[in-house]
């Protein structure tokens, strides 16, 4: 088999593996073109906070799925009780309903509404977003000034959202790294900032008591690793870095009780 032909076979396989792993919430480390496994979890959140975030995510996903029209495609990401909503909904009423559903869940203390009104994204668009997420994570891993484990990366329609308990310098470095990844349209910082010494303390505590990694997608079991064609993944080169913005967070009343 020629080298060019081998590349044509390997690239879709690697892309599929990256996409499946990203959808399941575990980004592989790419060294020398091969996936070497998932990162060891050193999340700066406490084990209790991670459990609570997972419970909020499950409730939000279930309630949204049971309430919104089938045409809606809503992704829920939770970090430290702040909920990011991405995806597409058919109308403004569905958009407002999704936000209200999250508001009713107990212990939610912030909501970032990034839902777009329009048809649900295609498989190709979602594959491309997963590919971008994997590239951002890989570049964060290769950036020695920061620890990639402390960042949560979400991509929707080419826009990259970064979450985490980080110092301002860590957040700046990660956003700059993400902004230079091919295909990224915009980087939105949704960090919670802590002082550098607090960030170090949280990392030290997390390393002593690592929590088992949890998948971000409740439906991860349905992800297939069937090879995808090259036309389903795009990587538009950027002549300049993508713009970086601070994302607005709507307050989520924490004193409400939810189901």
From TrEMBL:
Pfam families: BON. Residues 199-259 are annotated as: Disordered. Signal peptide: none annotated. Residues 206-221 have a biased composition (Low complexity). Keywords: Signal. Gene3D superfamilies: 3.40.1520.20. It comes from the Bacteria. Residues 222-233 have a biased composition (Polar residues). Residues 50-119, 128-195 form the BON domain. This is BON domain protein. The lineage of its organism: Bacteria, Pseudomonadati, Pseudomonadota, Betaproteobacteria, Burkholderiales.
């Amino acid at each position: 088999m020629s080298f060019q032909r081998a590349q044509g076979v390997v690239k879709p396989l690697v892309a599929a593996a990256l996409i499946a792993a990203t959808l399941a919430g575990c980004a592989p480390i790419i060294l020398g073109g091969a996936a070497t496994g998932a990162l060891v979890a050193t999340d700066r959140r406490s084990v209790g906070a991670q459990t609570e975030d997972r419970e909020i995510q499950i409730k939000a996903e279930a309630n949204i799925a049971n309430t919104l029209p089938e045409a809606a495609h809503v992704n829920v990401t939770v970090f430290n009780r702040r909920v990011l909503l991405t995806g597409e909904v058919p109308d403004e009423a569905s958009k407002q309903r999704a936000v209200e559903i999250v508001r009713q869940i107990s212990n939610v203390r912030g909501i970032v509404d990034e839902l777009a009104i329009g048809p649900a994204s295609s498989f190709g668009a979602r594959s491309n977003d997963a590919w971008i997420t994997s590239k951002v994570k890989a570049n964060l891993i290769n950036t020695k000034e920061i620890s990639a484990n402390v960042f949560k990366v979400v991509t929707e329609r080419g826009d990259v959202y970064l979450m985490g308990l980080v110092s301002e310098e860590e957040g700046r470095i990660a956003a700059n790294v993400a902004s230079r990844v091919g295909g990224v349209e915009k980087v939105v910082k949704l960090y919670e900032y802590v002082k550098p010494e607090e960030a170090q303390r949280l990392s030290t505590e997390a390393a002593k008591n690592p929590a088992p990694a949890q998948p971000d997608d409740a439906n991860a079991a349905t992800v297939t690793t069937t090879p995808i064609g090259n036309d389903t993944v795009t990587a538009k080169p950027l002549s300049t870095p993508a713009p970086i913005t601070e994302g607005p967070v709507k307050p989520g009343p924490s004193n409400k009780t939810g189901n």
